[in-house]
Structures are given as C-alpha cells and as structure tokens.
Amino acid sequence: MDGHILLIEGERAAKTSCAPILEEQGFQVARAHTRRAACTALETTSPDLLVIDTRCLRFNGLRLCEALSASENHVPILLIVPEDQKRPHYPGVAVLRGTPTVRKLLNRVKRLLSPPGNHMLRVGDLTLDLQRRVVIRRGEEHRLTPRQARLLETFMRNNGRVLTRAFLMKEVWATDYLDDTRTLEVHVHWLRKVIEEDPQHPRYLTTVRKVGYCFKAPHSSIVRRPSDDSQEVNDRQTG
C-alpha cells in the first residue's frame, strides 16, 4: 500500500516502534526523534500521515500534537499515548492508547489514509477523484488536502441529507470531541471556495442552523430532502 508516513518517536523506541509493522505493509516511513527534526521534515516533505508516538519521546509530544492540529498543515495525525494517560482531545487527531495491536494500528492508519469506495465520485457537475484528491468542476481541477477530500466525499455520498456536526467530526476526524468545531467550519469554508461560484451565497453546501450542513447538488437527479429521519440516522451513526 502506498503512503508516506512521518513517524515521530523516541530514539529508544526500538521494541515498541510501529515502523516495522507499517513498512511490512508497504508504507514509506520516515522517522524523527526530536521536535526540530519533526518540524524540518514537515517543512521539506509532504507526508500523507503523521504518527506521533509519545511513549518514548524525550520532549512533550502532546504540545507538538496540539500545535500541529491547530496549524494550517492539514496532515492527518495519529497520536499514540501511554495506557495510563488520559485520552487527550485535539480537533482532527485520532488517538490510540497503550501498545496497539497490529490490526488496530493498521485499521486506523488505513482509515486515515485511504478513502473507501470507488476512486471517482460524480454528483451534479462535480467530480471528485479520491485517488488524486482532486475535485473537478466545469473542467477545472482543484487539489484538496486529505482532510478536505474526505469531507467532500462524505458530503457527496450523502447528497441531499442534513449531516450533523457530530456525525461529520466522527466520520472525517474520528473524534467525538465537539467542544471546538472550528476545524470543521474552516474546512467547509475552504470547500465552498472551491465548489461554489459565490462562496458567500452557497448553492451546493449550505448551513443548517444549530444542526450542521447539507450538501445538495443543484442539478443532481438523486436528491433526498433533509428530514428529521435523516438527522436521526446521523445521530445514531455517531453513537
């Protein structure tokens, strides 16, 4: 499986390192043992996934994770913390505690890296190439970050339905943390700049006050009207 992963771990993490497992699956793994090395790698390369293993780090990995999740880097992050540590909550960050099993580690990594389903999605006059992370509108291509592509895919697969913020945070960021949904709002803002003729007056992606968002293609032949039932389905999926 393709995928460039930047693994931030301690120098003495040989016995607990995730690198061998990931490399056996065909991922390209680059390692960084210091905060400076990690920041340099992020500036000079474009990893598809960032794995921060705090169990053996000699610096505060949580602070680095918090800073990166709040930045405009937009690389998916998987955070691994000790078993006895309280589960931290950062917008857009998936968390594993303790020493994850091979299956759990790979499932989480593949979920963060690989959009499910076919490579091409078409709704209305929008086409989303999941493999290249490109959205095509009226012949123009716009490249998306992994998270933007995942969010747009979720909207397109749920054309015409009202999606709650809780559902979107769970589906795209793999978190139940809802105290801060600014990350979601910022990503919706970026998507509107790409897919809307007038982002200030969106036609595709509209806000449903106090609930979430609704994506509905203006010229799509398959349109399901938002209803209380669709919202209840979304709420059950987040539970």
**Radius of gyration of CA atoms, rounded to a whole number:** 19 Å
The side-by-side strand order for the widest beta sheet comes to 2-1-3-4-5
**What is the CATH homology-level superfamily of the largest domain?**
Winged helix-like DNA-binding domain superfamily/Winged helix DNA-binding domain
Which CATH architecture of the largest domain would you pick?
Answer: Orthogonal Bundle
Summarize the amount of helix as a percent range.
25-40%
Q: How many structural domains?
A: 2
What would you call the quaternary organization? single chain
Shape: globular
* Low-pLDDT runs: 220-239
**Terminus-to-terminus distance:** 31 Å
Number of strands: 12
Q: What is the overall number of helices?
A: 8
What does this structure look like?
- The chain has 239 residues and is of the alpha/beta class.
- The chain folds into two domains: 4-113, 3-Layer(aba) Sandwich (Rossmann fold), CATH 3.40.50.2300; 120-238, Arc Repressor Mutant, subunit A.
- Helices cover 35% and strands 22% of the residues.
- It has eight helices and twelve strands.
- It has helices spanning 19-24, 35-44, 61-70, 102-113, 146-157, 165-173, 182-195, 228-238, and strands spanning 4-8, 28-32, 49-53, 77-81, 93-97, 120-123, 126-129, 134-137, 140-143, 162-164, 205-208, 212-215.
- The strands form three sheets. A five-stranded parallel beta sheet has the order 2-1-3-4-5, sandwiched between helices. The protein has a four-stranded antiparallel beta sheet with strand order 6-7-8-9, with helices on one face. The chain has a three-stranded antiparallel beta sheet with strand order 10-12-11.
- The longest helix has 14 residues, at 182-195.
- The chain is globular.
- Residues 220-239 have low confidence and may be disordered.
